[in-house]
Amino acid sequence: MNPTINKVKEALSHLDIITDTHQVTKLSLDYYHFSPILKEQLQDKRGDIVIRPTTEAEVIEVAQSCVNYKVPLTVRGAGTGNYGQCIPLEGGVILDTTKMQQILWLEQGVACVEPGVKMAAFDKLARQTGWELRMAPSTYRTATIGGFIGGGSVGMGSVNYGQLRDRGNVRALRIVTLEDEPCLMELRGDEVQNVNHAYGTNGIITQLEIPLAPTYPWAEIIVTFDDFMQAARFGQGLGDSDGIIKKLITVHAAPICGYLHHLKDYLPENKHAALLMISEYDLEAFKDLVYEYKGEITYLKTAEEASKGASLLEFTWNHTTLHARAIDPSITYLQTFYFTLDNVEHFYNHFGDEVMIHLEFLKFQGKVIPGGLQLFHFTTEERVNEIIRYHEENGAGIANPHTYLLEGGGRKTINSPQLNFKKEVDPYGLMNPGKMTTN
């Protein structure tokens, strides 16, 4: 083992430290292999040791030791991200936050938690008080709240609340810095954007204050259609129906439905499908909408029935990619803001089955818009870039899932305030180095 790492290990020997090669490898990786490009770039990247703190005080100890010996530190939640957010490019310490699981307080409409709290476990408790998380990824059962804030952006609930970066979706964060003397820092309001979706490059999150949403009994429903654009128009119509409370609007083009084997009894061949979560209180109005758009309900479970098995959430967002890749590992994906149905129709007709359209509707600047996690068969990196370029030149926005750089994904430009904040809290550049452009 690297002599410098040995010094860190000796200094922190009273903490939970993992050195087993197999375990360190497992805890160095995420779902980066969804992208063949990232797989080539990241498959050999590993940390040297993993440390699992249980308290904020222990996090400070780890930070101090890494600063003392100038050892890189990469923060990790459950590792359910897809862009290599938690994969260390330069070795060092993996700081696994999954043992920091306290719900510090839960009040009407807001909660304070430690980063390792699992999202599904939190919701189970919060719903007893009439509240729930505003949004969550398809990895909801295993993902941690801290990991989602650090590396995620949208998910179930985004049709109502938009993206995590939208003002108000994160109230406050408490972080540990990597200065000569690591300190605790509380960020509130707009200040949280210095750390929100920053891949752990700008501070170790130790507490989060998050706003909640009123909970409803969420019915889970599949509606099928003969025509894809009719399915897409239905999705937009549902998103625009202010009187129908919804939490999830997913639309899959027919080729994608063939990859969802667990739902095959509800997805007739060559049909296009909408996978939905709707308040049980609004089912009568919802069924009228289905009739208007000439859809057919093939699956409907009440909230109680849905709670006893796999949720439809696990066939949406990036779990759709997971299911498709389980059948055909050559499949990869994009992440797209279509903005309008006209754009959806243009790209649907232009690419045909080469780019299989999977829509997720979300709130963007006050309006519900179609986003996409399209699937396609990987051939070459050049073809991936051509597909991305065509989308961007024709009115769509791409959050590129084939890069591990913060600026290379959805931002495309250096975030100067975030970069300046990094220089303040991480003067030696030890936090997840290589993920943020620093010059």
UniProtKB/TrEMBL annotation:
Keywords of the record, alphabetical order, are: FAD, Flavoprotein
Q: Name one GO biological process term.
A: lactate catabolic process
Q: Which SUPFAM superfamilies match?
A: FAD-binding/transporter-associated domain-like, FAD-linked oxidases, C-terminal domain
- Cite the GO molecular-function annotations of the record: D-lactate dehydrogenase (cytochrome) activity; D-lactate dehydrogenase (NAD+) activity; FAD binding
Q: Which residues form the FAD-binding PCMH-type domain?
A: 42-215
Q: Which residue stretches, if any, does this entry annotate as coiled coil? A: none
- Asked if Flavoprotein is a keyword of the record, the answer is yes
Cross-referenced InterPro entries: FAD-bd_PCMH (IPR016166), FAD-bd_PCMH-like_sf (IPR036318), FAD-bd_PCMH_sub2 (IPR016169), FAD-linked_Oxase-like_C (IPR016164), Oxid_FAD_bind_N (IPR006094)
What is the name attached to this protein's record?
Answer: FAD-binding PCMH-type domain-containing protein
